[in-house]
Design goal:
Structural class of chain B: alpha+beta
Radius of gyration of chain B: 30 Å
Strand content of chain A: 5-15%
CATH superfamily of one domain in chain B: Immunoglobulins
Shape of chain A: elongated
Number of domains of chain A: 6
Number of strands of chain A: 19
Number of helices of chain B: 9
Oligomer: heterodimer
CATH architecture of one domain in chain B: Sandwich
CATH class of one domain in chain B: Mainly Beta
Helix content of chain A: 40-55%
Strand order of the largest sheet of chain B: 2-11-10-6-7
Radius of gyration of chain A: 38 Å
Largest interface: A-B, 62 and 50 residues
Shape of chain B: elongated
């Protein structure tokens, strides 16, 4: 017997259970990679166990065993997270509870409990991903849960699941306008209480410190950091090689790790920025990263603009929000590729930027002294020193690689002399150490370089893998100048944008072989564009956009009260619509019956109360008996009414009915009894 | 003892002002309902309230909303609002399951007190989609009968109804309910059918044999036949009885019930006496016990195919036999 036949012969209870288990698996599966391995396996085993019981029609385990399993699940969660509160522990626990609950699911009440637990589990999926794929999977799961619930409320016989599915789909369809209205108009507010500490843990991004090796992890991360849409045509844009999105600037080196200067020191110091030439306007959609840095193209004097956003420029030209970016943030900015910044003459802070721990990287210090001693360099000043260092990178057999191995204590020494291989952060860090050893103020700038233009919608996508580290060197009379030593090692990394890719998996290679790489790229572009739309319209629908939309609707200074009013208005409109519809539905009730009821009411007023179930012929007899000859016209009318209903007639009865109604209005009611 | 407990409770509830208000309200509400054997459920007589599960859903929605706000999950908002929208649609579907349905009570057949009997209700739907999971019950009994009503069709439901007392009863208030599709709302309608149902007295179990017949001439009844369980007109088959004396109708019944007992006509006695069933001849004092025994006798006499009559305090059912006679007697016993 094949599977289909087996399934169709299962008792209804078993069939419903299997369906519910399938839905639960659908809810839990996307969560699997985010659960501790033991929890995922535990939940999976419980579901398999329940499936076996349902297939074999075996009794469910005893309450004691279930209780023991519950205690085990809670204890294991406690052991793993030291708490059962908090996001990670909560998600683990709810997944286990859902799987456990299936082992005692029998009655309708249990279907309800599973239904509610299922929704919490669905929501917890969104902690980890809000992609279109997750949304689609959860839509399927929602329909599945609704179907299971509807099915649980059809106790008669063995209705096909398709009937329940149709009802569920219809409810979801009717619910969609409600969803859209609420989504658009429900006032967006700030988190009600502080976010738990583990919020967004595991998401990579730039940070305020850099230990050699950080960005390597990001190079493997294909997730989107932000998207940019430039005003005007592409021809007006700077070349890709000049697109440096500025993030944390790292000036403080302790021999091992680069740190940004503490933020509180910076706001009062002027950045000393002078811009020249035409500006480029653009709009950036920044993914939430829990960091304050607002990525901008170098350099923007006015900074990012978005309602509700408070940003300031730090001394070293980076823009910071006063609050970490915890939701998708969209801002407008104007940047000037030609600019000059920093003090033109030596200051005390600059001396801080050439500090180097005394015992750090002795060979690099020696190299710096050696280069300084070169007469050509000493004649040419700082610029000549920079050129000499870049020349060394270009010609000294240095190699750009994502897998440079593990560096020891003196990273710059190892880079310059031993390994001669690394990627942007090794190169930038070593370069800055060399400059500082030579007494030149220099610093590491991290951020993103380049990006990818999506030909479908024209948006530029900047990924975590575009994270980059470059350097800035201070030259007297010219201020801070950007130097990208990585470009000297690997010109391809900058500019032509043949980025070094992380080694691709077997699947990726297979895709390239089977589908042509061009087609794969095309598909990817379409997918990215769709994903961007999704982000713009769904994920990025924040308070800002909500208020923008109100403005577009004609509100001058919209606030959340307007939203509430609008929402209340919509509810009132919907209620009115419902009332109108039900009134209309009442009118649709048999007009013949309504006319008969009217006649009965009039007779009751005239003193002849007749029961409601009396047919017109019997009413006519009663009228004759009660009123005698005076009642004859009314009796005739009643008989005609009866004939209209029951006698054979081919034509539409509506005109005749109208005639009878008019006749009834003019009918003189008998006032006295015979 | 249960009766005293019950009485005490009813006294307590009579004194409880809230209970009194509730009862008043109930009575007023019931009085508003017109008695009719056919009713169309409309907006006016279909009620809706959320169930416990419905409140639970509301709480779930609230928690989902708070989580969406706190974690700033736009997909969480979408999920919450889609679920809310579906629940609203579910409320409408739930209400529409009863709205527009017409209920018709089929004329109830009489039955014996204490028997589980059924009221037959026909549910007719003119809608082009089926109506699912409609439950009917006598109000307050909790014995629900479930049915689906097909699209533009009808379904018949038997509602359990077991009145304890004999007599002519009003059909109790019936209630139709549904929680389809989500169980979050209870939609119900109350209905007072106009029909009445006749309840025969419960026959006494293991009633003694029928009393002897009265002789036509007013002679004293023959005691001999009463003792041996033989009655006027018939007696148990004896070997040697001619075939024409065997009551074949009874024999078929006896075969069907598996007793194999043949009955012969007793030509000598059938003309001499007639059977009258009277309260006085039951030998009992309690009126209800008398009626129970008389009922048992009526059934017994009918089973034996006798001619019999019934004399009650204020009514007399003349001599007769057959199904019609049985019904006449049972009706008289039910209503006396």
């Amino acid at each position: 017997m094949n599977l289909r036949a087996t399934l169709s012969h299962l008792p209804r209870e078993a069939r419903d259970t299997l369906f519910l288990l399938g839905v639960i698996a659908c809810v839990l599966l996307p969560l699997f990679p985010h659960l501790p391995l033991w929890a995922g396996l535990f939940a999976g085993l419980l579901l398999l166990w329940r499936t076996g019981l349902a297939l074999l029609s075996r009794p469910l385990p005893s309450r004691w065993l279930l209780f023991a399993l519950l205690v085990l699940a809670v204890a294991a969660t406690l052991g793993q997270f030291r708490t059962i509160l908090g996001r990670e522990a909560g998600v683990t626990l709810i997944a286990l509870l859902l799987a456990l609950k299936t082992l005692e699911a029998r009655a309708r009440r249990d279907a309800m409990v599973i239904f509610f637990l299922g929704f919490f589990t669905m929501l917890s999926n969104f902690f980890f991903s809000q992609s279109m794929f997750t949304a689609a999977a959860m839509l399927v799961a929602l329909l599945g849960l609704l179907t299971a619930l509807v099915n649980a409320h059809m106790p008669v016989g063995r209705p096909p699941l398709a009937v329940a599915l149709r009802t569920a789909a219809r409810m979801a369809l009717f619910g969609t306008p409600v969803m859209v209205a609420l989504f658009v108009f429900f006032p967006r507010m700030a988190p009600l209480w502080g976010l738990p500490g583990d919020q967004l843990s595991g998401r990579s991004g730039l940070s305020g410190s850099m230990q050699v090796g950080n960005i390597a992890q990001m190079a493997l991360d294909d997730t989107v950091a932000f998207r940019v849409r430039f005003d005007g045509t592409d021809s007006a844009l700077p070349p890709q090689s000049a697109m440096y999105f500025r993030g944390p600037v790292l000036s403080d080196f302790d021999g091992r790790e680069w740190q940004a200067l503490p933020i509180r020191d910076t706001p009062n110091t002027p950045a000393l920025l002078e811009v020249q030439g035409p500006g480029i306007g653009y709009e950036t959609t920044l993914e939430p990263n829990q960091k304050p840095w607002l990525l901008l193209l170098d350099a923007s004097p006015e900074g990012p603009k978005a309602s509700g956003l408070q940003a300031f420029m730090a001394r070293d030209l980076e823009w910071l929000s006063i609050r970490p970016v915890s939701e998708v943030l969209r801002y407008r900015a104007t940047s000037y590729p030609q600019f000059r910044h920093g003090p033109l003459t030596e200051t005390r802070t600059l001396r801080f930027s050439s500090a180097l721990p005394a015992d750090s990287n002795p060979r690099t210090q020696a190299l710096a002294a050696q280069m300084r001693a070169d007469p050509a360099v000493s004649a040419g000043g700082t610029q000549a020193l920079v050129d000499a260092a870049l020349k060394r990178l270009r010609t000294g057999g240095y190699e750009y690689t994502l897998e440079p191995g593990v560096y020891g204590e003196h990273t710059a020494d190892e880079f310059w002399f031993d390994r001669k291989a690394g990627f942007c952060e090794h190169i930038a860090s070593s370069f800055v150490i060399l400059m500082r050893a030579a007494g030149v103020p220099a610093r590491v700038v991290t951020g993103y370089q380049g990006g990818e233009r999506n030909p479908v919608d024209g948006y530029w996508t900047v990924r975590q893998s575009d994270a980059h580290a470059w350097t800035e060197v201070w030259i007297e009379g010219r201020g801070w100048l950007r130097v990208d030593p990585t470009g000297a090692v690997s010109p391809g990394r900058i500019g032509q944008f043949t980025r070094l890719r992380a080694p691709r998996g077997a699947f990726g290679n297979a895709v390239d072989r089977v589908i042509s790489p061009g087609l794969a790229q095309q598909l990817r572009a379409v997918w990215e564009a769709a994903n961007n739309r999704w982000n713009q319209w769904v994920l990025n629908y924040t308070q800002t956009r909500q208020l923008d939309m109100l403005k577009a609707l004609g509100f001058d200074a919209p606030d959340w009260q307007d939203l509430v009013n609008l929402l209340a208005g919509l509810v009132a409109a919907a209620a009115l619509g419902g009332a109108a519809w039900s009134a209309w539905e009442r009118l649709q009730h048999d007009p013949w019956l309504r006319l008969l009821t009217l006649a009965r009411k009039r007779l009751a007023q005239a003193g002849l109360a007749l029961p409601a179930h009396l047919p017109p012929r019997a009413m006519a007899e009663a009228v004759r008996a009660h009123f005698g000859a005076a009642g004859e016209p009314l009796a005739q009318w009643l008989l005609e009414l009866e004939a209209l209903r029951y006698a054979a007639h081919g034509s539409n009865p509506a005109p005749r009915l109208k005639q009878l109604r008019r006749q009834f209005a003019t009918l003189a009611l008998p006032t006295h009894s015979a | 003892m249960t009766e005293t407990v019950f009485r005490r409770r009813s006294v307590a509830s009579a004194l409880n002002p809230a209970g009194m208000v509730q009862r008043r309200f109930r009575a007023w509400w019931m009085a508003r309902l017109p008695r009719t054997d056919t009713t169309l459920l409309t907006q006016r007589n279909v009620y809706i309230l959320p169930t416990g599960a419905g409140w639970m859903l509301a709480l779930t929605l609230l928690v989902l909303l708070v989580a969406s706000i706190n974690f700033q999950l736009n997909l969480g908002y979408l999920l919450t609002f889609l679920l809310a929208g579906s629940a609203v649609a579910g409320m409408h579907v739930c209400h529409a399951t009863l709205r527009g349905l017409s209920l018709h009570l089929k004329t109830p057949t009489p039955h014996f007190a204490g028997d589980s009997a059924a009221l037959e209700v026909q549910l007719t739907s003119e809608r082009r989609s089926p109506r699912m999971a409609i439950a009917l019950a006598v109000q307050g009994s909790g014995q629900w009968s479930w049915t689906d009503v097909p699209a533009q069709g009808a379904a018949v439901v038997q509602v359990a109804f077991a009145p304890a007392r004999r007599g002519l009863h009003d059909v109790p208030v019936l209630t139709a309910e549904t929680r389809f599709p989500l169980g979050t709302f209870r939609v119900w309608a109350l209905w007072r059918p106009a029909a009445q149902v006749l309840v025969y007295p419960a026959p006494e179990p293991h009633a003694p044999a029928l009393p002897p017949g009265e002789s036509l001439g007013g002679d004293a009844p023959t005691t001999q036949s009463a003792g041996s369980g033989e009655f006027d007109g018939v007696r148990a088959y004896r070997r040697g009885d001619p075939q024409k004396l065997v009551v074949w109708k009874k024999a078929a019944q006896a075969l069907a019930t598996g007793t194999d007992a043949l009955v012969s006509r007793d030509t000598q006695q059938s003309q001499r006496s007639e059977l009258w069933l009277e309260p006085g001849r039951t030998g009992l004092v309690d009126p209800e016990a008398r009626i129970a025994r008389l009922t048992a006798w009526v059934l017994q006499a009918d089973r034996l195919g006798l001619r019999y009559g019934l004399r009650l305090a204020d009514s007399v059912v003349p001599q007769g036999s057959g199904a019609a006679q049985r019904l006449r007697c049972l009706e008289a016993l039910a209503l006396c």
